[in-house]
Amino acid sequence: MISVKEILITPGHFFEKKCREKASLKVPVLIVLITAVISGISAYIVSGKTFEAMGSGLEGYAFIASLFGFAVAFIGMFISWAIRALAFLVMIYILKGTATFKQLAEVAGYGFIPQIFGGIITTAIMMTSIQNLVIPATSNMQEIEVAMKAFTTSAPMMAASFVSIIFTIWSANIWLFGIKESSGLEFKKAAICVGVPLVIFIILSLSSFVM
């Protein structure tokens, strides 16, 4: 039986035991699936409301936009999972560690547990803030871009981004111990494996507020 509490609070103990077993993706797939559904729901709401707010006859496309948004976010989460595992594999190879892609996919998957809680919170924030989105009924793309920029840099959206960063850092803590145990790397090198992708993510998340 997998202990979610142990993964979240004492990931070192969890992976110390888990890495003695054969790698399995059954539970990690379920974790990523739940995260993908939450991400998809958030995108569904935002995409649909955005088209409704634009008016100018685009309201009829809101449902299609919502479905498209859900599909992109849902599939994107699984792609993110694979990319993360691959990034860990490359970093471990550079630092002279040893691990298989399946092992790292398992580690990365367990690390998505905090994203479930973070996703619920950010979705709640977006559901509230999207109600205040007002886009001028105009074909002038510059005016539309200004309105969207004001929305994406609003206080609630900034809060959602910071919540996402906080829970990603929590995930990074889980990945850190998972990589350390599965690759045989010392703590410092395992921290580098996790830290480099994490810093890139934080920079990209904050860049939208300063550009």
Topology:
Layout: H1 4-9, H2 11-18, H3 26-54, H4 62-94, H5 101-110, H6 113-129, H7 141-152, H8 155-183, H9 187-210
Helix pairs in contact: 2-8, 3-4, 3-5, 3-6, 4-5, 4-9, 5-8, 6-8, 8-9
Amount of helix: over 70%
Strand residue content? under 5%
- Regions with little confidence, pLDDT below 50 for 5+ residues: none
Oligomer: single chain
Mean pLDDT: 85
* Biggest pleated-sheet summary: none
The number of distinct helices, counting runs of at least 4 residues, comes to: 9
Radius of gyration: 19 Å
Order of helices and strands: HHHHHHHHH
Shape verdict? elongated
Distance between the termini: 46 Å
Structural class: mainly alpha
| Number of β-strand runs | 0
Task: Give a description of the structure.
By secondary structure, the chain is mainly α. The protein is 80% helix and 0% strand. It is built from 9 helices and no strands. α4 (62-94) crosses α5. The longest helix has 33 residues, at 62-94. The mean pLDDT is 85.
Properties at a glance:
80% helix; 211 residues; mainly alpha; 9 helices
Summarize the structure.
This protein has 211 residues and is mainly alpha-helical. It is built from nine helices and no strands.
